[in-house]
Protein backbone atom coordinates (compact mmCIF):
# COMPACT_ATOMS: atom_id res chain seq x y z
CA UNK A 1 0.00 0.00 0.00
CA UNK A 2 1.41 3.39 -1.00
CA UNK A 3 1.72 5.98 1.72
CA UNK A 4 0.55 9.57 1.42
CA UNK A 5 4.13 10.82 1.18
CA UNK A 6 4.89 8.41 -1.64
CA UNK A 7 1.95 9.63 -3.69
CA UNK A 8 3.19 13.20 -3.67
CA UNK A 9 5.90 14.79 -5.74
CA UNK A 10 8.89 16.34 -3.95
CA UNK A 11 7.25 19.76 -4.13
CA UNK A 12 4.15 18.49 -2.35
CA UNK A 13 1.87 18.19 -5.40
CA UNK A 14 0.06 14.97 -6.19
CA UNK A 15 1.28 13.26 -9.32
CA UNK A 16 -1.52 13.16 -11.88
CA UNK A 17 -2.75 10.29 -13.96
CA UNK A 18 -3.79 6.71 -13.20
CA UNK A 19 -1.52 4.05 -11.82
CA UNK A 20 -0.52 2.50 -15.14
CA UNK A 21 0.34 5.86 -16.71
CA UNK A 22 2.31 6.87 -13.63
CA UNK A 23 4.32 3.64 -13.67
CA UNK A 24 5.05 4.16 -17.36
CA UNK A 25 6.34 7.68 -16.70
CA UNK A 26 8.48 6.43 -13.80
CA UNK A 27 9.90 3.66 -15.99
CA UNK A 28 10.74 6.21 -18.69
CA UNK A 29 12.33 8.55 -16.14
CA UNK A 30 14.59 5.86 -14.67
CA UNK A 31 15.49 4.54 -18.11
CA UNK A 32 16.63 8.00 -19.21
CA UNK A 33 18.50 8.45 -15.91
CA UNK A 34 20.30 5.13 -16.36
CA UNK A 35 21.22 6.08 -19.92
CA UNK A 36 22.61 9.33 -18.53
CA UNK A 37 24.75 7.33 -16.11
CA UNK A 38 25.98 5.13 -18.94
CA UNK A 39 26.85 8.18 -21.06
CA UNK A 40 28.76 9.81 -18.20
CA UNK A 41 30.64 6.57 -17.58
CA UNK A 42 31.67 6.31 -21.23
CA UNK A 43 32.93 9.91 -21.03
CA UNK A 44 35.05 8.96 -18.02
CA UNK A 45 33.21 11.47 -15.82
CA UNK A 46 33.55 11.16 -12.04
CA UNK A 47 30.77 9.40 -10.15
CA UNK A 48 28.88 8.78 -13.43
CA UNK A 49 26.02 6.68 -12.08
CA UNK A 50 25.16 9.40 -9.54
CA UNK A 51 25.88 12.60 -11.49
CA UNK A 52 24.48 11.37 -14.82
CA UNK A 53 21.00 10.56 -13.43
CA UNK A 54 21.08 13.74 -11.31
CA UNK A 55 21.74 15.98 -14.33
CA UNK A 56 19.24 14.18 -16.58
CA UNK A 57 16.40 14.04 -14.05
CA UNK A 58 16.96 17.66 -12.93
CA UNK A 59 16.72 18.80 -16.58
CA UNK A 60 13.56 16.74 -17.04
CA UNK A 61 11.80 18.13 -13.97
CA UNK A 62 12.84 21.75 -14.50
CA UNK A 63 11.63 21.57 -18.12
CA UNK A 64 8.44 19.75 -17.13
CA UNK A 65 9.04 17.11 -19.82
CA UNK A 66 7.87 14.33 -17.49
CA UNK A 67 5.47 15.15 -14.68
CA UNK A 68 5.51 12.41 -12.09
CA UNK A 69 6.24 12.17 -8.39
CA UNK A 70 9.26 10.03 -7.56
CA UNK A 71 8.23 7.85 -4.57
CA UNK A 72 10.23 8.66 -1.46
CA UNK A 73 10.08 4.94 -0.61
CA UNK A 74 12.71 4.09 -3.25
CA UNK A 75 15.44 6.26 -1.70
CA UNK A 76 16.09 3.83 1.21
CA UNK A 77 17.08 1.16 -1.32
CA UNK A 78 19.97 3.31 -2.51
CA UNK A 79 20.92 4.31 1.02
CA UNK A 80 20.95 0.73 2.35
CA UNK A 81 23.05 -0.59 -0.55
CA UNK A 82 25.63 2.19 -0.25
CA UNK A 83 25.70 1.94 3.56
CA UNK A 84 26.38 -1.80 3.46
CA UNK A 85 29.12 -1.29 0.89
CA UNK A 86 30.75 1.47 2.95
CA UNK A 87 30.47 -0.48 6.21
CA UNK A 88 32.26 -3.46 4.71
CA UNK A 89 35.30 -1.21 4.11
CA UNK A 90 35.92 -0.97 7.89
CA UNK A 91 38.62 -3.62 8.18
CA UNK A 92 40.51 -4.12 11.48
CA UNK A 93 43.43 -2.19 9.94
CA UNK A 94 41.12 0.68 8.93
CA UNK A 95 39.61 0.83 12.43
CA UNK A 96 43.07 1.06 14.04
CA UNK A 97 43.92 3.91 11.68
CA UNK A 98 40.72 5.76 12.60
CA UNK A 99 41.55 5.60 16.31
CA UNK A 100 45.02 6.93 15.62
CA UNK A 101 43.68 9.84 13.52
CA UNK A 102 40.83 10.78 15.88
CA UNK A 103 42.23 14.28 16.68
CA UNK A 104 42.41 15.19 12.98
CA UNK A 105 38.92 13.80 12.34
CA UNK A 106 37.31 15.70 15.24
CA UNK A 107 39.26 18.86 14.40
CA UNK A 108 38.04 18.72 10.80
CA UNK A 109 34.42 18.35 11.95
CA UNK A 110 34.71 21.42 14.21
CA UNK A 111 36.44 23.39 11.46
CA UNK A 112 33.66 22.56 9.01
CA UNK A 113 31.01 23.73 11.48
CA UNK A 114 32.86 27.03 11.96
CA UNK A 115 33.10 27.61 8.19
CA UNK A 116 29.38 26.98 7.82
CA UNK A 117 28.53 29.52 10.53
CA UNK A 118 30.83 32.18 9.01
CA UNK A 119 29.24 31.73 5.58
CA UNK A 120 25.76 31.81 7.17
CA UNK A 121 26.58 35.30 8.49
CA UNK A 122 27.42 36.42 4.96
CA UNK A 123 24.42 34.65 3.39
CA UNK A 124 21.93 36.21 5.79
CA UNK A 125 22.95 39.66 4.53
CA UNK A 126 23.17 38.78 0.83
CA UNK A 127 19.86 36.90 0.67
CA UNK A 128 18.01 39.10 3.17
CA UNK A 129 17.07 36.19 5.43
CA UNK A 130 17.52 35.60 9.15
CA UNK A 131 20.76 34.14 10.47
CA UNK A 132 18.90 31.10 11.82
CA UNK A 133 17.43 30.44 8.39
CA UNK A 134 20.83 30.98 6.70
CA UNK A 135 22.42 28.52 9.13
CA UNK A 136 19.81 25.87 8.31
CA UNK A 137 20.34 26.57 4.61
CA UNK A 138 24.01 25.65 4.80
CA UNK A 139 24.41 23.01 7.51
CA UNK A 140 25.16 19.56 5.99
CA UNK A 141 22.02 17.48 6.39
CA UNK A 142 19.29 16.21 4.08
CA UNK A 143 16.78 18.69 2.59
CA UNK A 144 13.93 16.83 4.30
CA UNK A 145 15.55 16.90 7.76
CA UNK A 146 16.51 20.58 7.38
CA UNK A 147 12.96 21.48 6.37
CA UNK A 148 11.57 19.66 9.41
CA UNK A 149 13.91 21.57 11.72
CA UNK A 150 12.89 24.85 10.07
CA UNK A 151 9.19 24.15 10.59
CA UNK A 152 9.73 23.24 14.24
CA UNK A 153 11.67 26.47 14.72
CA UNK A 154 8.94 28.56 13.04
CA UNK A 155 11.12 29.32 9.99
CA UNK A 156 9.93 29.33 6.35
CA UNK A 157 11.15 25.95 5.04
CA UNK A 158 11.06 26.63 1.27
CA UNK A 159 14.35 28.62 1.06
CA UNK A 160 15.93 25.96 3.27
CA UNK A 161 14.82 23.14 0.94
CA UNK A 162 16.08 25.04 -2.11
CA UNK A 163 19.46 25.81 -0.53
CA UNK A 164 19.95 22.27 0.77
CA UNK A 165 19.12 20.80 -2.64
CA UNK A 166 21.54 23.17 -4.38
CA UNK A 167 24.22 22.49 -1.75
CA UNK A 168 24.05 18.73 -2.06
CA UNK A 169 23.89 18.78 -5.86
CA UNK A 170 26.68 21.34 -6.26
CA UNK A 171 29.07 19.46 -3.95
CA UNK A 172 28.32 16.11 -5.62
CA UNK A 173 28.99 17.58 -9.07
CA UNK A 174 31.69 20.17 -8.38
CA UNK A 175 34.03 18.29 -6.04
CA UNK A 176 34.77 15.20 -8.16
CA UNK A 177 35.27 17.34 -11.28
CA UNK A 178 37.57 19.69 -9.35
CA UNK A 179 39.71 16.76 -8.17
CA UNK A 180 39.80 15.42 -11.72
CA UNK A 181 40.91 18.83 -13.00
CA UNK A 182 43.78 18.92 -10.48
CA UNK A 183 44.86 15.28 -10.78
CA UNK A 184 44.17 14.74 -14.47
CA UNK A 185 41.26 13.18 -16.34
CA UNK A 186 41.42 9.38 -16.40
CA UNK A 187 41.06 7.12 -19.41
CA UNK A 188 37.45 7.44 -20.61
CA UNK A 189 37.48 3.78 -21.61
CA UNK A 190 37.88 2.65 -18.01
CA UNK A 191 34.66 0.87 -17.02
CA UNK A 192 33.49 1.34 -13.46
CA UNK A 193 30.63 -1.14 -13.67
CA UNK A 194 31.68 -4.64 -14.70
CA UNK A 195 29.62 -7.77 -15.18
CA UNK A 196 30.50 -9.94 -12.19
CA UNK A 197 29.32 -13.38 -11.07
CA UNK A 198 26.58 -13.03 -8.48
CA UNK A 199 26.13 -15.31 -5.46
CA UNK A 200 22.36 -15.19 -4.80
CA UNK A 201 22.74 -16.42 -1.21
CA UNK A 202 25.35 -13.78 -0.36
CA UNK A 203 23.26 -11.09 -2.08
CA UNK A 204 20.17 -12.10 -0.11
CA UNK A 205 22.14 -12.29 3.17
CA UNK A 206 23.68 -8.82 2.77
CA UNK A 207 20.33 -7.33 1.74
CA UNK A 208 18.64 -8.91 4.77
CA UNK A 209 21.35 -7.54 7.09
CA UNK A 210 20.92 -4.05 5.62
CA UNK A 211 17.12 -4.02 5.84
CA UNK A 212 17.08 -5.47 9.37
CA UNK A 213 19.65 -2.94 10.58
CA UNK A 214 17.76 -0.01 9.00
CA UNK A 215 14.48 -1.20 10.54
CA UNK A 216 16.05 -1.59 14.00
CA UNK A 217 17.64 1.87 13.92
CA UNK A 218 14.37 3.39 12.75
CA UNK A 219 12.49 1.84 15.68
CA UNK A 220 15.19 3.13 18.01
CA UNK A 221 14.64 6.59 16.43
CA UNK A 222 18.27 6.98 15.43
CA UNK A 223 18.75 9.81 12.87
CA UNK A 224 19.25 8.71 9.25
CA UNK A 225 18.49 5.04 10.08
CA UNK A 226 18.60 3.80 6.48
CA UNK A 227 22.27 4.72 6.31
CA UNK A 228 23.60 4.57 9.86
CA UNK A 229 21.93 1.21 10.63
CA UNK A 230 23.40 -0.87 7.79
CA UNK A 231 26.69 1.03 8.05
CA UNK A 232 27.09 0.28 11.76
CA UNK A 233 26.20 -3.41 11.52
CA UNK A 234 28.30 -4.07 8.40
CA UNK A 235 31.24 -2.17 9.93
CA UNK A 236 30.98 -4.32 13.07
CA UNK A 237 30.94 -7.49 10.95
CA UNK A 238 33.92 -6.27 8.91
CA UNK A 239 36.00 -5.30 11.96
CA UNK A 240 35.40 -8.76 13.49
CA UNK A 241 36.16 -10.56 10.19
CA UNK A 242 32.59 -11.89 9.83
CA UNK A 243 31.49 -9.78 6.86
CA UNK A 244 29.81 -11.24 3.78
CA UNK A 245 31.05 -10.29 0.31
CA UNK A 246 30.04 -6.80 -0.90
CA UNK A 247 27.34 -6.10 -3.46
CA UNK A 248 28.31 -6.50 -7.15
CA UNK A 249 29.18 -3.31 -9.04
CA UNK A 250 25.93 -3.45 -11.00
CA UNK A 251 23.85 -3.34 -7.79
CA UNK A 252 25.88 -0.38 -6.52
CA UNK A 253 25.39 1.41 -9.85
CA UNK A 254 21.63 0.80 -9.65
CA UNK A 255 21.58 2.26 -6.13
CA UNK A 256 23.35 5.37 -7.42
CA UNK A 257 20.83 5.73 -10.24
CA UNK A 258 18.03 5.69 -7.67
CA UNK A 259 19.73 8.28 -5.44
CA UNK A 260 20.73 10.52 -8.35
CA UNK A 261 17.25 10.43 -9.87
CA UNK A 262 15.58 11.18 -6.55
CA UNK A 263 17.88 14.13 -5.94
CA UNK A 264 17.36 15.47 -9.46
CA UNK A 265 13.58 15.18 -9.05
CA UNK A 266 13.65 17.72 -6.22
CA UNK A 267 14.41 20.44 -8.79
CA UNK A 268 11.12 21.98 -9.94
CA UNK A 269 10.39 24.73 -12.45
CA UNK A 270 8.10 26.51 -9.99
CA UNK A 271 10.69 26.46 -7.20
CA UNK A 272 13.64 27.45 -9.39
CA UNK A 273 11.67 30.16 -11.19
CA UNK A 274 10.51 31.81 -7.97
CA UNK A 275 13.95 31.63 -6.37
CA UNK A 276 15.82 33.96 -8.73
CA UNK A 277 18.49 35.99 -6.95
CA UNK A 278 18.18 33.92 -3.79
CA UNK A 279 19.20 30.73 -5.64
CA UNK A 280 22.35 32.48 -6.88
CA UNK A 281 23.17 33.54 -3.31
CA UNK A 282 22.64 29.98 -2.05
CA UNK A 283 24.89 28.54 -4.77
CA UNK A 284 27.59 31.13 -4.07
CA UNK A 285 27.41 30.35 -0.35
CA UNK A 286 27.80 26.63 -1.06
CA UNK A 287 30.89 27.20 -3.18
CA UNK A 288 32.36 29.52 -0.52
CA UNK A 289 31.82 26.89 2.20
CA UNK A 290 33.43 24.28 -0.05
CA UNK A 291 36.47 26.51 -0.64
CA UNK A 292 36.87 27.39 3.05
CA UNK A 293 36.43 23.78 4.20
CA UNK A 294 38.89 22.53 1.58
CA UNK A 295 41.49 25.10 2.60
CA UNK A 296 41.10 24.32 6.29
CA UNK A 297 41.21 20.58 5.61
CA UNK A 298 44.45 20.87 3.64
CA UNK A 299 46.07 22.73 6.54
CA UNK A 300 44.91 20.07 9.03
CA UNK A 301 46.10 17.37 6.64
CA UNK A 302 49.58 18.86 6.48
CA UNK A 303 49.79 18.92 10.26
CA UNK A 304 48.55 15.32 10.52
CA UNK A 305 50.54 14.01 7.54
CA UNK A 306 47.43 13.04 5.55
CA UNK A 307 46.86 13.21 1.80
CA UNK A 308 45.13 16.45 0.78
CA UNK A 309 42.59 14.60 -1.39
CA UNK A 310 41.47 12.53 1.58
CA UNK A 311 41.15 15.67 3.71
CA UNK A 312 39.17 17.60 1.08
CA UNK A 313 36.71 14.73 0.66
CA UNK A 314 36.48 14.27 4.43
CA UNK A 315 35.69 17.95 5.04
CA UNK A 316 33.35 18.47 2.07
CA UNK A 317 29.90 19.77 3.12
CA UNK A 318 28.11 17.04 1.18
CA UNK A 319 26.04 14.06 2.24
CA UNK A 320 27.87 11.08 3.71
CA UNK A 321 26.30 8.74 1.11
CA UNK A 322 27.43 10.90 -1.79
CA UNK A 323 30.92 11.52 -0.41
CA UNK A 324 31.42 7.82 0.33
CA UNK A 325 30.56 7.04 -3.29
CA UNK A 326 32.88 9.80 -4.50
CA UNK A 327 35.72 8.41 -2.36
CA UNK A 328 35.12 4.91 -3.71
CA UNK A 329 35.11 6.07 -7.31
CA UNK A 330 38.25 8.22 -6.89
CA UNK A 331 40.15 5.38 -5.22
CA UNK A 332 40.43 7.06 -1.81
CA UNK A 333 40.17 5.44 1.62
CA UNK A 334 36.40 5.00 1.91
CA UNK A 335 36.42 3.98 5.59
CA UNK A 336 38.52 6.97 6.61
CA UNK A 337 36.52 9.53 4.62
CA UNK A 338 33.24 8.08 5.89
CA UNK A 339 34.56 8.41 9.44
CA UNK A 340 35.18 12.12 8.87
CA UNK A 341 31.56 12.59 7.81
CA UNK A 342 30.06 10.38 10.51
CA UNK A 343 32.04 12.24 13.18
CA UNK A 344 30.71 15.53 11.84
CA UNK A 345 27.17 14.12 11.84
CA UNK A 346 27.39 12.96 15.46
CA UNK A 347 28.86 16.30 16.55
CA UNK A 348 26.70 18.68 14.51
CA UNK A 349 23.36 16.91 14.07
CA UNK A 350 22.35 16.82 17.77
CA UNK A 351 23.50 20.44 18.08
CA UNK A 352 21.57 21.94 15.15
CA UNK A 353 18.14 22.35 16.88
CA UNK A 354 19.49 24.12 19.97
CA UNK A 355 21.90 26.22 17.87
CA UNK A 356 18.97 27.39 15.72
CA UNK A 357 16.95 28.22 18.87
CA UNK A 358 19.94 30.09 20.32
CA UNK A 359 20.45 32.10 17.12
CA UNK A 360 16.72 32.87 16.84
CA UNK A 361 16.65 34.02 20.46
CA UNK A 362 19.62 36.31 19.82
CA UNK A 363 17.99 37.77 16.69
CA UNK A 364 14.70 38.52 18.45
CA UNK A 365 16.52 40.31 21.28
CA UNK A 366 18.85 42.35 19.06
CA UNK A 367 16.21 44.73 17.59
CA UNK A 368 14.95 45.51 21.11
CA UNK A 369 18.47 46.34 22.22
CA UNK A 370 19.01 48.56 19.18
CA UNK A 371 15.76 50.44 19.85
CA UNK A 372 16.73 50.99 23.48
CA UNK A 373 20.13 52.33 22.45
CA UNK A 374 18.51 54.65 19.88
CA UNK A 375 16.37 56.22 22.56
From TrEMBL:
Q: Does Transmembrane count among this protein's keywords?
A: yes
GO BP terms = regulation of gene expression
Q: Name one GO molecular function term.
A: monooxygenase activity
Statement: the UniProt record of this protein carries the keyword Iron-sulfur: no
Give one Pfam family, short name only.
AbrB
Q: Which InterPro entries match?
A: AbrB_dup, AbrB_fam
Membrane spanning residue stretches: 23-40, 46-68, 80-98, 104-123, 135-155, 161-182, 203-220, 247-267, 279-301, 334-356
Record's keyword terms, sorted = Membrane, Monooxygenase, Oxidoreductase, Transmembrane, Transmembrane helix
GO CC list: membrane
Its name, as the record gives it, is Putative ammonia monooxygenase
Organism of origin is: Roseivivax marinus
